[in-house]
Write a structure and sequence with these properties.
CATH architecture of one domain: Roll
Shape: extended
Helix content: under 10%
Distance between the termini: 60 Å
Largest sheet: 6 strands, antiparallel
Order of helices and strands: EEEHEEEEEEE
CATH class of one domain: Mainly Beta
Number of helices: 1
CATH superfamily of one domain: GroES chaperonin
């Protein structure tokens, strides 16, 4: 008999994150156990899956033109900045922990993400590749 395949589908403006596990090293070189790390406000992990984004209304639906057809069955979304493979630093209290097929994940709303780290290679560039320097 075949095996039933399950898939997690992230909805809305949420991220599925595989949290960092294990101990953490302080600036002084001390290794903190997971119980000490869990009391921190911010936490990090790797983005496994990203929801479609923030849903928005179809602007054509608000037109008063009775003669035009504006039935758009496809929902529209503002996409999220996060991508699969990014490292995300997020507010720990906003995350919801789940276990799926023996693996631990966190579901994090996009608004709780503080910063994303995306690895990439840019030839001939020495320095920070950030956007605004305000």
């Amino acid at each position: 008999m075949g095996r039933l395949k399950k898939e997690l589908i992230v909805v809305g403006d949420r991220l599925l994150i595989r949290p960092e596990e294990g101990e953490e090293r302080t600036d002084a070189g001390l290794i903190l156990p997971p119980t000490a790390v869990s009391s921190r406000q911010a936490r990090g992990g790797w983005v496994v899956s990203v929801g479609p984004g923030v849903p928005i209304a179809n602007p054509a639906a608000y037109l008063d033109d009775e003669w035009s057809e504006h039935d758009d069955p496809q929902p529209r979304f503002v996409p999220l900045q996060a991508q699969e493979g990014d490292y995300a630093l997020f507010m720990h209290k906003a995350a919801v922990e789940i276990t799926f097929e023996g693996k631990r994940y966190l579901i994090v709303p996009n608004g709780a993400v503080l910063v994303l780290v995306r690895e990439g290679f840019e030839a001939g560039h020495d320095g920070w590749a950030g956007g605004n320097s305000n």
